[in-house]
Each structure stands twice: as structure tokens, then as C-alpha cells.
Amino acid sequence: MKKKLYWICQLGGWLVFVLFQCVFEKLNGTFTLSFALSQFILFSFGVIISHLYRNLIIQLGWLRLKTLFVIPLVILASLFIATLHEYGQYGVETLLGIAANKHQNTVVILSAVLNLAFVYFFWSLIYFLFHFIQNYKKAEIENLKWQANINEIELNKLKSQLNPHFMFNAMNSIRALVDENPQKSKEAITQLSNLLRNTLQMGKNKVITFDEELKIVNDYLALEAVRYEERLQVKMEIDKQSSEFSVPPLMLQTLVENGIKHGISKLTAGGQLELITRVHNHKLMITIRNSGQLKETQQSDSGFGIINTRQRLKLLYADQATLTIANETPEFVVTQLTLPRQVITHQSGS
Questions:
Q1: How far apart are CA 121 and CA 115, in angstroms?
Q2: Which of 301 and 138 is assigned the larger pLDDT?
Q3: Is 347 domain-assigned?
């Protein structure tokens, strides 16, 4: 379709140009068959030379250059190909015996070349403008797709933040504690309240401090401890330098939840979850080890949380962040997250 449009514009443009000159010549009363044949030659040369010129523009990559560099190149190219056109057409007309005596006058020759140079410059202007509009539309479409992708990921993030299964299980666990241990049930309600408040407040932030994220993880683990009791053993080794880093909100919590949901919860005797952080080469390396076994069919983007996390990392850090999940031993699964140092652009509310 694009190629068809090009040839319609190419042939139509040159045809309109020569017809305009024929009409002008007719109005002056100087129209002759020799002039008509000369215009046909001009049309043929114009189509052929401008098409070759187009191929040259593509091969030399002029469409990727900035406007300030393109303008002088187009001016020089227009003058050069106009000169070739003028003398090439004159040669053909000479062979056909219809050549005028204009090439004996330098001023007339220069005028003819400049007129053709203007035509080729105008042709270039239209060609580059067409590609500029095409690229602009393409960029707009890509931007809309990118925004739609971001919105979809944000929606998925919100869905994962307000996990109804976790909420249901947490409320059931707290209800069971009300009569058995009122004080502990109050603490659990406070932790659930903190988790919900932080979830809602941090939903609009791109990144938060590592310490803020760790508080969310601690509240989450405390609630899960109420549910699993002795079946959940937690061990943490947090590098003090971790506080200097920012992390995407609820990303660490999602990975911890993934370890419990897909690992420990499936074991009758429960298991252990380890959260270890290290700072090396200006990067924060987070390791989560949990009891369980990752099936081969799940080793690629296991679970919705992992898929969502990979998408968020790609949007925020491009290729500077990594996330891997694999079986470390027959009894343990290890998740490793590496984040670059990043300036915090948003602060969560208290």
C-alpha cells in the first residue's frame, strides 16, 4: 500500500508539473509539438532521476539525520541532480533534433538548472515531510501502546496488592485469635491495617525506600505467622547498606508471598523462608530462599506475581535489573533480585 501510494504521488506529481507548463505555454501561444515532446522527456527524466535520488536517500540514511544536517545535503543534491537532468535532457533532445539554442546562453542554462533544482528541492521537502508524519504517527502509536501496557501492569499490580485470598485467610486467622489470644489478635489487626494503608498509599509511587518495603514485608510475615504458626520459620540477614537503595513498592512483598504461597504452603510440615540482602558493585542483591520445589513446567515466569514483577522491572530499569527463580536444591527454591542504585522520586505518606 505504501509503495503504491509512492508511485501514485511520483507519477502524478511530475505529470501535474509538465501539464502546468504545457498549459502556460498554450496560453502564451507558443505551444508546439517539439515543446510537448520536450516536456515528455522532462517527465521521464524527472520520474527516473527522482526515484534514483530516493534510493540514494534511503541507502545513505538521510531519513535518520537531524534537520540541520539534512537541509544543506538536500540543497547540494538538488543542484547536482538538476544539472544532470538539464544536460541529460539536452543530450536526448539533441539526438532527436528538437534541442533549442538555449544552451548557448550561460544565463539561460543557469536559470534552467536553478528552476529544476527548486523542483527537486520541493520534491525532497514533500518526501521528507511524508516520512516525518509517518514516523510521528508511528511514534504516537508506540507511545499509546506503551501507555496501555503501563496501565495494564499498574492494574495487575493493584490486583496483586489487594489479593482477596490473602485478605480472607488473614481475617480468618485473626478471628480465630480473638477468643484465644485477644492481645495478639489486636496486634494482628494493627499489622493488617498497616499493610492495607501502605498498599493504598504506595500504589502511585514508582519507588520507595528499602526500609519502607521491609516494614511491609515484616507486617505481611507477621500475619502469615499467625496463620501458619510453627510451620513458618523466617530468617533475615539484611545488609545495613540496603537502606541506601530504593525499590519498587510491594515488589519484595510479592516475591516473599510467592515463596510462601507456591512453596511452604504446599508442605505439610511447613518450611523455612530466608531473606538475605547484600550490596555489591553499587547494586542491591536480594535473595529469597524458601522450602519447596519449583516444577519444570513452572520454571519460566512461575505465577502471576513473577510475571508482573518482570514487567515492572523492565519498565523501571530496562536491562539494569534482573530477576531469576530456580531450584537451588531438591528442598529449596531460590529467587534472586538485583536492583541498581536509583534516586527516589516519590516518598510515601506516613
A1: 10
A2: 138
A3: no
Question: How far is 257 from 184, CA to CA, in rounded Å?
Answer: 22
**Does one domain contain both 20 and 87?**
yes
Q: How far apart are the C-alpha atoms of 132 and 327, rounded to whole Å?
A: 51
- Looking at 95, 127, 156, the residue that finishes a domain is 156
Q: What helix, strand, coil percent values describe the chain, rounded to 5?
A: 70, 15, 15
Instruction: Check if the beta carbon of residue 248 is closer than 8 Å to that of residue 207.
Output: yes
Q: Distance between CA 75 and CA 98 in Å, rounded?
A: 30
Q: Which amino acid is at 150?
A: I
- What's the domain range around 242? 162-340
Q: Has residue 83 been placed in a domain?
A: yes
Q: pLDDT-based confidence at 197, cuts 50/70/90?
A: confident
Cα distance between residue 79 and residue 186, in whole Å: 85
Q: 20: how many CB neighbours lie within 10 A of its CB?
A: 11
Question: What single letter denotes the amino acid at residue 17?
Answer: F
Q: Is the pLDDT of residue 295 over 90?
A: no
pTM of the model: 0.53
Q: Please tell me the distance from the alpha carbon of residue 160 to that of residue 150, in angstroms, as a whole number.
A: 15
Number of domains present in the structure of the chain: 2
**130 and 240, same domain (yes or no):** no
In whole angstroms, what separates CA 317 from the centre of its chain?
A: 12
Q: Which of 129, 156, 183 is the last residue of a domain?
A: 156
Contacts of 181 (CB under 8 A, 6+ apart): none
User: Quick one: 141 and 188 in the same domain?
Assistant: no
Same domain, 317 and 198: yes
For the chain, first and last CA: distance in Å?
Answer: 58
Identify which of 107, 112, 111 has the alpha carbon closest to the alpha carbon of residue 38: 112
- Which position has the grid cell 513452572? 298
Q: Greater confidence, 139 or 348?
A: 139
pLDDT, tens only, 220-267 = 898 888 888 899 999 999 999 999 999 988 889 889 988 998 899 889
Among 114-118, 172-176, 277-281, 331-335, the least confident range: 172-176
* Least confident stretch, 49-53, 156-160, 345-349: 345-349
Predicted local distance difference test score (pLDDT) of residue 183 = 83
